[in-house]
Amino acid sequence: MCPAIRPRRRVLRVAAWTLALVLVVAAGLTGVVLWQHSYDLDVRRVSIRHGGHTLNGVLATPRDGRGPHGLVVYVHGDGPVDATHDDGYRPLWEANARAGYASLSWDKPGVAGAPGDWLDQTMDDRADETAAAIAWARARTDIDSDRIGLWGASQAGWVLPKVAARTPVHFVIAVSPAINWLRQGRYNLLAELRAEGASPSRTEAEIARSDTTRRLLARHATFEEYVRAMGGDPGGMTAGRWNFVSRNHTADATRDLRALRGVPVLLTLGGHDVNVDTVDTERTYSEVLDEGGALTVERYPDATHSMVRQSIERSDARTALTALLSPRSLFADGFLDGQRRFLQELGSPARPRPSHPLTVSR
Questions:
Q1: Peptide bond preceding 68 in cis form (omega within 30 of 0)
Q2: Structure confidence at residue 204 (pLDDT)
């Protein structure tokens, strides 16, 4: 055999073994991804009629065969959110299922092919939409109509109590809910500027811009007036978004929260929330719901506004990798278990509730 051929064969063998190893690792990773994204749920698409159009929904039910099940109805936060929140809801739905509860969610209008435009909605419109979904669920034989409650995050804080004023609910899970639109906006602005280490001059300029926006909203200015006032730079604001903010900027949940008195409420707050002033939120919930309410407050010191661990959320790469390989691990330690436990400990609608808030720190 020619000696020159031996090195070439060794190279080919190394390449073959390297390729085999890569394929084995790839197959293993594929298996991990498939396993991590396999949830103990039965998920189906549903259609809900409301106001002359259809809500494109998703109903996720436990596989225990013990129906009818209680139901958690999801109320999204801000933005163009689809029914699964880009699959981000699935770990929560699984936690609900382990407590014996189904989950119902739907695409916002204009999202994922749904009719309408969510930017045309007010908080009252969203509450009417949710009440219609609850009425639809109550007519189903696989849902226990006496054990239907709400889950809502962030902007949903203005929607949840409005729904409870329209139709009876068995419980409410409020995740990082806001109280007052304008106060929340100012808190968010200042918190983000601090996080960025903004200079005093930039902070002053941003506050001035915010004050101008508030004056324009107060006098119902048009989008064109807003653009002119901003020197031709809308700063990411669109005509549709301006319309949405104009219709909703006076939102304040304080008075509406009275509709939740006597309803078991789980208030979930993160320790690194730059969107919502959690101190203001907890104080308001405690003051309004203290009389005859059943408020449980759970704080997660390592959580952000979205209940994702801060150490993960501050890195886009780590967030993407965790979402791919271990989506349940995105959330703060104890968050999913806390939600499951709250649902498991709910009694029948007629069972008396404690009349004082319970606070738990995780």
A1: yes
A2: 97
